[in-house]
Amino acid sequence: MFKALPKSTEAQVMGKQLLRCGTSVAANYRAVCRARSKAEFIARIGVVAEEADESVLWIELLEETGTLSSDKLKEITKEARELAAIFSASQKTAKGNR
């Protein structure tokens, strides 16, 4: 998706932000899977939830600014929102099971 963005400064800034937080979700989720304690799991899944939510923000901004059309972003927006909801629910469940 990043490679498909226009070369304007605005598009590249938003794209790089999305690229950073999107890859952060994956890297931090991997760390969640290796958590050594419940507290570490909760802390790390919290980071994943935040980064996933930030990814949704950048996708929404790409759409709202007209950088990419709603049609092109429909599926990725849906998936990003679903992942953010899953990670947030996982964090809430883990906190409740202390």
Low-confidence stretches: none
Count of DSSP strands: 0
Q: Which fold name is given in CATH as the topology?
A: de novo design (two linked rop proteins)
Question: What's the gyration radius in Å?
Answer: 15 Å
The H-level CATH homologous superfamily, spelled out, is 23S rRNA-intervening sequence
Helix content: over 70%
Biggest pleated sheet: none
Q: What class would the helix/strand composition place it in?
A: mainly alpha
- What overall geometry do the principal axes of the alpha carbons give? elongated
Q: What fraction of residues sit in β-strands?
A: under 5%
CATH architecture assignment name: Up-down Bundle
CA-CA gap between termini: 39 Å
Overall number of domains: 1
Q: What is the mean pLDDT?
A: 95
CATH class: Mainly Alpha
Helical stretch count? Answer: 3
Order of helices and strands: HHH
Explain this structure.
The chain has a single domain (12-96), classed as Up-down Bundle (de novo design (two linked rop proteins)), CATH 1.20.1440.60. It is built from 3 helices and no strands. The protein has helices at residues 9-33, 38-64, 70-96. It has 98 residues and is an all-alpha fold. Helix 1 runs antiparallel to helix 2 and helix 2 (38-64) runs antiparallel to helix 3.
